Every structure is written in structure tokens, then in C-alpha cells.
Amino acid sequence: MIVQQLINGLVLGCVYAMLAMGFSMVFGILRLINFAHGEVFMIGAMVSITVLNLLLGISGPNAPPALAAVFLLITMLTAMLSCGVLGIVLERVAYRPLRNAGMLAPLISAIAASTLLQNVAMLVFGREYVPFPAILPSGGIPIAEATMSWKGLLIVVVAPIMMLALNQFMMRSTLGKSMRATAENLEVASYMGIDTNKAIVTAFFIGSILAGAAGTLVGMYLNASHYFIGFFAIIKSFTAAVLGGVGNLTGAVLGGILLGLIESFAIGFVPDLTNGIIGTQYKDVFAFVVLIVFLIVRPSGLLGERISERA
Amino acid sequence: MRSLKFSSLVLVLWAGMLAVACSAPAAPAPGAAPADPKAAATTAPAAATGGEVVTARIGTAGPLTGSWSKDGKDLNNGVLFAADVVNEKGLTIGGKKVKLDVKTEDDQQDAKQATIIAQRFVDDKSLVAVVGHYTSGTSIAAGKVYDEAGILWITPNASNPSVSQQGFKNFYRVMCTDPIQAQKAADISGKLIGAKNVAIIDDKSQYGQGVADMFAKGVESAGIKVATREHVADKDTEFGSIVTAIKGKNPDLVYFGGYYSQGALIRKEMAKQGLNVPYIMSDACFSEEFIKLAGADGEGAYATTLGVEPAKLPGYADFNAKFAPKYGTVGYGTPYAYDALMVVVEAMKKADSLDRKAIATAMKSIKEYNGMTGRLTWDQYGDNASPVVSVYQVRGGKWVYVQ
After folding, report:
1. Do B244 and A129 touch (CB under 8 A)?
2. Quick check: B247 and A11 CB within 8 A?
3. Contact across the interface for B24 and A53, Cβ inside 8 Å
4. Rounded mean pLDDT of B230-234?
5. pTM of structure
6. Is B254 helix (H, G, I), strand (E, B) or coil?
């Protein structure tokens, strides 16, 4: 059982890590809690369902494995791209006009954008759970006495690759360097001739791409999507980001994986330990309790914050 | 200039993507929107001279959004259809021609919303009775408001027994209550399936937890062990860890009390983790939506239902023929909602008045009613005194009657 909970936790953790990275990037540069990030994740899931249904509609429901892999790739890329574009539009429409308006106005704008996207999704995709077409086989590979499902395996493989790619991008490329500079101090970076607007837009774009990929993977993993899942996504990604240290990308990854593991193990063992008094419906509570304890003991998170200095 | 071109390109791309998403097969558009509350409150009570048509409003409320919205819509359609039938036949009360107008509200399966809606209904002077709410938790919340106002309210399907135990004076049910379906589920666990060790999950809702608790009692008195008792929050979508925890207890049957969305997702998670044991669900999971969501993994799942499926009811063919062109398929709860409104109309006829209190009093003297769903009688709490319960199983992608 421990191994299975570990596997569950890792898979969940990878998803939270991907979401937290995008969230953390934006927070680090702009000190903005991007509430709409969860909705971008949800739109990613919905778009991937739509595209996959379209593709399967052309080929027929039982596609051979090679074709299925190609479909999956196309679906994920489409979802990622549309979410990236959505992120850019959000930045341009909801956040940039309020860049110098203090902290409250962009926050309200973020909540408004989140509500708007939720309701658009509800109108377009309906109020029900939208099923994800079954493209990956059901079983999995046995590890010790547990099973790692194929979908879980995909997540555990794809997520680290994307996160590593992002890390390399941030460290090596010029654009990555300018993003890090902007994150350190926006004004001074602009004095140094760095195009801070470009850096900010890129941050949103990359964060949203990650959210879109996470949306596709989660939709596949949970076999369904719903217009309201963005709400939980944002709460978890916020928690994970703060847990690892806000603005700190490695911290976001660590926080995400830690959060997933905590949730999994808490569900597995706390009900037994407390004889059912604290039952499994409190699974979200465990994560938040950990967050609160952490904020009291070590407020800057596990690996320390990296928020831009405001003179 | 460059930024203008770029932003317009981005906007065009985004609009294009949205257009593709909208044109792709999407779920049906939302149904009846809640009517403007201000308009209802300021409508003067029905007053007319002979020959004029008087409007009597019937309020109905249930989850039209959220994880049970498909069934909510089906029930709502039943009420609307019944009003159509009554208006077509023509209704005369107190010498005047009466036209029924149904006011639909979405309580989002939330008790707070339900109370607000109940207050709205009660404040509307032209509203004579209520059909609803469609879930037990919301019914209890709204019931307090209706009880104070002395208005007649009939729920087609809210099945938790505590609703009628609150002491509401003008409350009635069409479907019977959960202990009966829980007992049936416990019976088939032992006799039909032969389980010795069961895991029980519920969604912590008034209804879900209630029926799961009753099932637990039922199996324990049949000598079957309850391996574990788990709960999920009603908006959960991720069940990996819970199913793992259950699997570790080695149950040979899993029971779920709750609504179809989670019932389906839990079943899929069980299939994913290789927990292939019989799966029984409570009646809110008996829906086409369960089969759609669960897909191939839903095969073999059982559900208890209060009553029988619509197609088995006598008179279904005519009902369906008139219902389908305007409202689509007959949902599982639709005939019950239909009967609920018909019973209200019976009470109105008996009272021969549009006064709320008169209608509520007249209802007490109606001893039985023969409706679409069979013979309805009520005990002193308003519960259905002639209950029927059935068991269905998913076979070949369809619900098949078992017993």
C-alpha cells in the first residue's frame, strides 16, 4: 500500500509542480497572484478533450497505438499552444493596463478573469463532467506490490522533461537571463536595456504552456474534466509555490512534489490512525495544515523566496 | 506599430481557437435560466373577473448546474411538461380559468442557495405551491421557509428520511425513502453477490451519507463485515489515494452513496488500480450519464433505484410521445416530477381555490392518487406509504433490470 500511495503521490506531485512553476514565475516577477492560472489549466484540459474527440472522430474510436501516440502528441501541442496564447491575451488585457496600479487592482482583475473563463467554459462545454476519450490502455506496469498506470507513467516522464527544459531555458538562453533579471528588479533591468515587457509576456506564455500540458495530462489521468477544476488547481499550485518558496522555480517543483506526497500519504494513513475521525474527505485540509505550519516556522518556504525587489 | 500588429495577430489566433472549440461537438447549452426575481415579486396576486384567465405560479427548484445537473434538468422537464398537459386540458378553479406558470430556479444543490430561493418563492404572492427541491440537503434547508409560510410543497425525489422527520406540516414525497433502497442493496450484497467484506464510500452529502449509513447498518445486521468507511468531498475529482486505501483492506464489494459523476469516476479509478469487485451505487447514480462517464469501466456496476425505470411504467408510450418532441428523452426522475405537479393540481382542485393555506389543507384530505408512477399514498409524515424499489445493472452499455 505504501508503494501505491507513493506512486499516486508522485504522479499528483508532478502535476502540482508543473502548475506551481508557471504560477511562481509570474508571482516572482510581478508579485501578482494569477488566479486565472487555474482556469488556463482547465481550458487546456477542455481543449485537449475537444481536439482528441475531433481526431478520433476522423480515425474511428479504436486507433492503432502508433496513431494514438501521434494523436496524443498533436492534442498536447494544441492544448499547450492555445493555453500559451490565452496566457498572452490575459496578460495584455487583464494585467498590463494595471501594471502600475498597486497590488489590489491586478488581483481583482485576476479573479474577474478567472470567473469569466470559468463561465465561458461552462457555457461552451456544459455543466457536466466532460469525459476524456480513452486513448491510453487501462492497465499499467507492476512495481513491487503496486501498479503504475500508463497514464501515471506518462505524467511522471513528461513532467520532469518539461520542467528540466524550462530550467535549461532559464539558465542558458538570453531570454531566460532577461526573465531572471526582470524577476530580480524590474526597474533596474529596464534601465539596463532589457525588454522587460518581453520578459513578462514570455513568463506568462511559458507558465500557460505548462498549465496547458498539465491540463491535458490531468484530464487523461482523471478520465474527465469539469469547468470547475481550475479552482482546485489554483489553490494547490499556490500552496505548492509558497511551500517551496515563491518565485523560486526549483522550490516550486519541490513544493509540488511534496504536496502530492503529503496528500497521498495523509489519505492513506490518517483515517486509520485516528480511527476514522479524520476521514478522507479532509484530504485538502492536510495540505493546508502543512502550509500553515510551514508559514509559521519558515515563512520564506523551503528554498527561500525570489521576489523582485521594490525600491 | 509592431506591438499593434502583434496583439491583433494574437487576438485573431485566440478568437480562431475559440471558434474551433465552440464549433466542435460540445455539451448541450444550459437549460431554463432562472426568471428575473424582481418581476415575480412585483406581480400582483391573481385577481380577475369572469372569462379572464388567472395565472397560478408553481415554484420548482433543483440543481440545474453542478455534478447532478442532468437529472436536475430531467426532473425540471417533468414539471414543465405536467404544466403543459394541465394547461392544454384546461383547469378551472373557483369558477375561473386558471393557467399554470412554472417558475424554475437553480439551487445548485447548495443549502444556502435553496433557502434564498425558498424565500423568493414565498414572497411571490401569486405562487401557490412548490415542487421541489430535488435533493435532500436542499429540501431540509428550504423546508423551514416553506413551513413558516404554510405553503404546500412536494418533492418528487428527495429521498433522505430526515426530510420528513423535521416536522414540516405540508411536506410530501412522491418517491419512497432511502432506507428501502439501502436495505435492498444490503440484501443483494449478501444473497445475489455473496459478499463477506464490503467497503463503503459516500460523498458527505445529506443524501449520500444517509443512504451509505443505512447500507452499513443493513449489511452489518446481515452478518457482512464493513471493511472500511470512506468519504469524499462532493467536488472531488481525484480518487487515486482513496481507492488505494480501500484496496489495501481487500473488500469484495464496494458501495457508493452519492451522485453519478463521482460514482463514475470512482469506478474508473477502481478499474485503473485493478480493484475489480462488484460495485453497487445508490439511486442518484442510476443515470445515462454514469454510463457515458464511466465508459467501458462501468460494465457490471449495480444501482438501486426508487421505483422503476420510466419505460416500465404503464402509459409510458403515450407519455413519451408527447414529451419527447419538446423536451427530449424522458429522464429517470421525470415521471415522478410529473406526478408531483399533478398531485399539486389535485390539491388545488380539491380546495377549489388559489389560496396557499387552502391548498395545503386540501392536500391533507387526499388519501391516494393514481399517477404515472403508480398508486401514491402518504403516511402522517408525508412519506410514500407504498414503496417500490428495483435493482439495475449495466450490461452491454445499458441499464438492465435485475430484480
Report:
1. no
2. no
3. yes
4. 83
5. 0.74
6. strand
- Pick from B7, B241, B271: CB nearest A138: B271
Contact residues, chain A, for B237 at CB < 8 Å = 129, 222, 224, 226, 229, 232
CA dist B387 and B392 (Å) reads: 17
Cα separation, A269 vs A263, in Å, equals 10
CB A222 within 8 Å of CB B294: no
- Residue B268 is nearest to which of A126, A223, A271, comparing CB atoms? A223
CB contact under 8 A, A53 and B25: yes
Give yes or no for a contact between B21 and A117, defined as CB atoms under 8 angstroms apart: no
The residue of B13, B20, B229, B244 whose CB has the most chain A CBs within 10 angstroms, and thus the best one to mutate to test that interface, is B244
Q: Give the count of Cβ contacts less than 8 A between chain A and B.
A: 144
Query: Touching check for B23 and chain A: CB below 8 Å?
Result: no
**Nearest-by-CA chain B residue for A205:** B10
Q: H-helix or E-strand containing B55?
A: strand B53-62
Residues of chain B neighbouring A151 (CB-CB closer than 8 A): 272
- Asked if A138 lies within 8 A of B244 by C-beta distance, the reply is no
Q: Which of A50, A129, A226 sits opposite B21 (nearest CB)?
A: A50
Give this complex's ipTM.
0.71
Return the C-alpha torsion angle B237, B241, B242, B246, nearest 10. Answer: 150
- Is residue A175 packed enough to be buried (19+ CB in 10 Å), middle (13-18) or exposed (0-12)? middle
pLDDT digit string, tens, across residues B331-354: 888 888 888 898 888 888 888 888
The contacts of residue B350 (CB under 8 Å, 6+ apart) are B362, B363, B365, B366
Per-chain mean pLDDT for chain A: 87
Q: How do residues B6-55 score in pLDDT, each as one tens digit?
A: 666 666 677 666 655 554 444 333 333 343 334 333 334 444 445 678 88
Q: What is the CA radius of gyration of chain B?
A: 23
Show contacts of A155-162: CB within 8 Å, 24+ apart: A155/A11, A155/A14, A155/A15, A155/A217, A155/A221, A156/A10, A156/A11, A156/A14, A158/A213, A158/A217, A159/A14, A159/A15, A159/A17, A159/A18, A159/A213, A159/A214, A159/A217, A160/A14, A162/A18, A162/A210, A162/A213
Instruction: Output the CA torsion B330→B334→B338→B341 (10° steps).
Output: -150
> Is residue B263 a contact partner of residue A311, using CB atoms and an 8 Å limit?
no
**First CA to last CA across chain B, in angstroms?**
73
Using the structure block, give the residue that is written with the C-alpha cell 493596463: A97
Cell numbers found for residue B240: 487515486
B247 at interface of A, judged by CB pairs closer than 8 A: yes
Q: What is the pLDDT of residue A62?
A: 72
